[in-house]
Amino acid sequence: MVSPAVFAELKTHLQRVIVGQEALLDRMIIALLTGGHVLLEGPPGLAKTTAVKTLAESVKASFQRIQFTPDLMPGDVMGSEMFDSKLGSLNFVKGPIFNEIVLADEINRAPPKVQSALLEAMAEKQVTAGGQTRALPELFIVMATQNPLEQSGTYPLPEAQLDRFMVQLNLSYPTPAEELEILRRDRARHFGEDKATSQPLLTPEMVLQARHAISEQYVSPAVEQYMVSLVSATRHLESLDDKMAGVLDMGASPRATLALLHAASALAWLQGRAFVTPEDVRQLLPDVLRHRIHVSFAGRAQQWTPDKVIQKILSQVEVPLASNFAQAAS
Predict the structure, then answer these.
(1) What's the pTM value of the predicted model, to 2 decimals?
(2) Of the options 2.40.50.140, 3.30.559.10, 1.10.1760.20, 1.10.8.80, the CATH number for the domain spanning 217-319
(3) Looking at the chain, which residues constitute the CATH 3.40.50.300 domain(s)?
(4) Which of 33, 102, 150, 175 has its CA 20 to 30 A from that of 81?
(5) Band of the pLDDT at 327, cuts 50, 70, 90?
(6) Quick one: 48 exposed, middle or buried, by C-beta within 10 A (0-12, 13-18, 19+)?
(7) Alpha-carbon distance 285 to 314, whole Å?
(8) How many H-runs (helices) and E-runs (strands) does the chain carry?
(9) Architecture of domain 4-190 in this structure
């Protein structure tokens, strides 16, 4: 049986390549353990691509980077039928989506028809083309990046697409100390002093074993109710505060509750616990919800942001008592 210690070692290995970005590494590992998809948003140059590629190499998983561009076609991602002159028939040629870890780089640069083509793959882990449905690898996850600052030549992701991502992580610039370490590591690599390489630490089979263990995590009825209350509060903000009526155009769907359950179960397992606590839920709620709720024009006029709304919900929804969930430890 795979233990959490193996994934702690994986994180340590990733930290030898990636400086800082603690939240990025944690959420990538949680996504790997749950089969969830991750949307990474931040300025260029923050090692998003390097982090995803290093993770794939560390897990010995098949990896493909897809550079999303305005002229990309669905067939360029999913694959298409090609005529075989020797056989005189059409054969399906698989696209880059048929890999275990897929990096959708600058996903918001692709037109809506390409984004829509990803919906089935991300939700059901299958691709339908040429009248036939083909399964994707069991480990399959998508990690997508987008630049929040640049709007020219981009296509905002539709709500249905955003809802397919388990978490969205907003990345920030490194601290001065971290940037100094990045500079020194780069110089060491330039002069051949840094011999660190990405070597496989796990196999896809080990990850799938861990996913099975996580699915058996105990979640008490009190914690289940807490998760439902947090997510459903996004649909009825006026129940928390009359002044918040109309702040959101749209709340989160039940898919958000499921994502929260899976992510919290993985976090508890990584910390060596067989049960989920409210703190696990609270820690992950911002990343699970921020891309699933939409602040209205009136809400923006009142200086509300998705993260501020989430913090308001966390402060207003009652947290279960320890006696209601800690019994799982016995």
Answers:
(1) 0.86
(2) 1.10.8.80
(3) 4-190
(4) 102
(5) low
(6) buried
(7) 9
(8) 13, 11
(9) 3-Layer(aba) Sandwich (3.40)
Q: Are 251 and 235 in contact (CB under 8 A)?
A: yes
**First vs last Cα of the chain: how many Å apart?**
21
Q: How far apart are CA 309 and CA 302, in angstroms?
A: 11
The answer to whether the beta carbons of residues 269 and 217 sit under 8 Å apart is yes
Q: Which tokens belong to 67?
A: 């550079």
Question: Please, are residues 58 and 10 in contact by the beta-carbon 8 Å criterion?
Answer: yes
Q: CA separation (Å) from 78 to 99, 135, 138, 145?
A: 11, 12, 16, 19
Task: Provide the 3-class DSSP secondary structure of residue 93.
Answer: strand
With the CA atoms of 267, 269, 272 and 273 taken in that order, what torsion angle do they form, in degrees rounded to the nearest 10? 100
In this structure, are residues 64 and 96 in contact, taking their beta carbons and an 8 Å threshold?
A: yes
If phi > 0 it is left, if psi is from -120 to 50 it is alpha, else beta; for residue 273 that is: beta
Measured between alpha carbons, how far is 197 from 132 in angstroms, rounded to an integer? Answer: 40
Nearest residue to 237 via CA among 151, 162, 299: 299
Give 270-330 as a DSSP string.
HTT-SB--HHHHHHHHHHHHTTT-EE-HHHHHTT--HHHHHHHHHHHSPPPPGGGTGGGG-
Residue range 206-254, pLDDT digits in tens: 889 999 999 889 999 999 999 999 999 999 888 888 888 888 888 899 9
